[in-house]
Design a protein that fits this description.
22% strand, 4-stranded antiparallel sheet, Purple Acid Phosphatase, chain A, domain 2
């Protein structure tokens, strides 16, 4: 009986100490102790999953989008437990880029699985952060070894969007199940010129029921709608799971802007917000670079084409067959006589 009584006294004293310490702590931190800071809704959140891209032997890009102005914090390691940390990096997610953020992780070991964990912290509020998500990619090897990649394009085109009852974008799950080293997206990441209706009739009489958003319900002409096209695709669970595990090498094609666009503004198209086709192209280009895990090279700002060296056995040449083509390539009635038409820039013949 005496032992039991003593245990109760110790427990009561411990509770008193804990409560006293908590009261003192709240009094000491002042405004930072406000209850609203503890709610998840008041912390910056990841809205569109995480992604990586442009992987080389010793570097890669990681990408995410926040729901408000925030600072993206990234830790990376060669072990999934993060027992050892290779490095940390941070980058701001600001309203001018629709709260997207990209980071170049450099100095990575070649031929290694790299795990990264990412979260957003409140601007000016150190320690106030949202959820953490973990991603993965594999750096290119320096030795001769087997490797695999998948390639595809044309996501959510011609009005066929995300039907959750049919499992969403199941192709991305199939690709993920094959555990490729990387993914080449050959363009038409979204269809800015193809709205997604609520329903589409199938040949067998069934109904395809799309998820619908305001920005994806009309043709994209202003910047918010271009951005909304990328955000629509990232509503899909399969795509987000794929992006978190497999790095992407991104090209673009026409539907990131509008069907069969070219850089020449001879075919003026009125765009909401003013300007012609050139304005439409700039909006599409801006949204593409905001939402793709693609490198920003200051000396080559805005360029989509590049070469990615993936080990001693493979070089990937990513061409840009939109930004440099003749405006009449797709519009000439006589396709047998293209004359001076070109798709990769004007020829520069010797002499």
């Amino acid at each position: 009986m005496a032992i039991a009584t003593r245990a109760k006294q110790v427990l009561t004293r411990r509770q008193w100490l804990v409560r006293s310490a908590s009261t003192a702590a709240l009094a000491g931190v002042g405004v930072l102790a406000k209850p609203y800071l503890s709610r998840a809704a008041d912390r910056p959140q990841i809205t569109c999953g995480i992604a990586s891209g442009d992987v080389s032997r010793n570097s890669a890009i990681v990408w995410a989008r926040a729901d408000r102005a925030a600072r993206m914090q990234v830790e990376y390691s060669t072990v999934e437990s993060f027992k050892t940390i290779l490095g940390v990096a941070s980058s701001d997610a600001l309203a001018e880029r629709d709260f997207t953020s990209k980071l170049l992780l450099d100095g990575l070991p070649p031929g290694q699985d790299i795990f990264y964990r990412l979260r957003f912290e409140a601007v000016g509020e150190s320690g106030i952060s949202g959820e953490t998500r973990v991603g993965h990619f594999r750096t290119a090897p320096v030795d001769r070894r087997s490797m695999s990649f998948v390639w595809s394009g044309d996501t959510a085109g011609q009005g066929w969007g995300i039907d959750p009852s049919r499992g969403g974008m199941r192709t991305y799950k199939t690709m993920l199940d094959n555990r490729p080293d990387f993914f080449i997206h050959c363009g038409d990441h979204m269809y800015a010129d193809c709205p997604v209706p609520a329903e589409l009739k199938l040949p067998d009489g069934g109904i395809w029921r799309n998820l619908v958003t305001e920005e994806k319900s009309v043709v994209a002409e202003n910047l918010a709608r271009f951005r909304g096209n990328y955000k629509y695709n990232l509503l899909d669970d399969n795509l987000r799971a794929f992006n978190a595990e497999v790095p992407m090498l991104a090209q673009w094609d026409d539907h990131e802007v509008t069907n069969d666009w070219s850089p020449v503004t001879s075919d003026e198209k009125a765009a909401e917000g003013g300007g012609g086709r050139s304005q439409l192209i700039e909006r599409g280009r801006l949204a593409f670079f905001e939402f793709m895990p693609i490198r920003n090279v200051p000396a080559q700002a805005g360029r989509v084409y590049r070469k990615v060296e993936y080990g001693p056995l493979l070089d990937v040449f990513l061409l840009d067959m939109r930004s440099y083509r003749d405006s009449t390539w797709n519009n000439r009635e006589d396709r047998s006589n293209r004359g001076d038409a070109f798709i990769l820039g004007r020829p520069n013949w010797p002499g």
